[in-house]
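Run log, item B.
One chain of 246 residues. Sequence copied directly from the ordering sheet:
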Amino acid sequence: MNMNMPVSNAPTPSGGSGGISSWFSTWITAVSKPNEQTFAQIADSPSASFGTAALWVFIAGTVSALIQAILQAILSLVGFHAQIPGLGAAGVGGTSTGFGSIALSVCLTPVYGIVAVIAFIILVAIFQAMARLFRGTGSFTKLTYPIAAIYVPVSLVLSIFTPFYLVPYLGVCVGILVFAAAIYNIVLEIMAVKAVNNFGWGAAVGSVLIVPGALIICSICVIAVLMILGPVIGNVFSSVNQSLAP
């Protein structure tokens, strides 16, 4: 008997029918073993399907919204009010309504889960459409599974830390953490797109970043134009109002 059997050091994300435990294994593997082989194995796992990916995103979106609602309500009760109104933000005019906010948020969190799924579908569709332009060999359905595996742990971690942006001195640390998580999320998505579509790094980066980059540039241009034309438009309206005045 040959006792020198080869041992594989490759990551083996659990993608079978092991239920929630296998889900957790896949999520942790996706963010803790970032390489092309990891995402290729996740995408090729027997349980990989669009339905499972959408379910993951719905659960993560719902749970993330609930966590943020509870944490924001607690922070509001102890005096840290949200500066930007959002889910779970308690207090109108400085009046704390933490318990009512939690109750309302519990009812609304599934809506955030649905919105997360819609945004997820659009994002993956954009990634795969761009990948096809770069002659990628993957498919939308195959790409949804590893992208969802990335989304779940990242969104849950951010949902825990983001509400603490309200706390003095912690805000800067939270901002740095969110920025780092966003960059890491993009890097993982690029790896996943590359693994599913079997092309080079340049094509993978282009598939993930071209459309968002174009949108950001267009937004900056629009804002710049509005800032430049704002005073001119204001003067025009002022002149019109003066000419119409009796």
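Observations after the first pass:
- The helical segments are 20-32, 36-43, 50-77, 98-133, 140-161, 170-197, 201-244.
- The chain has one domain: 21-28+46-244.
Flagged for discussion on Thursday.
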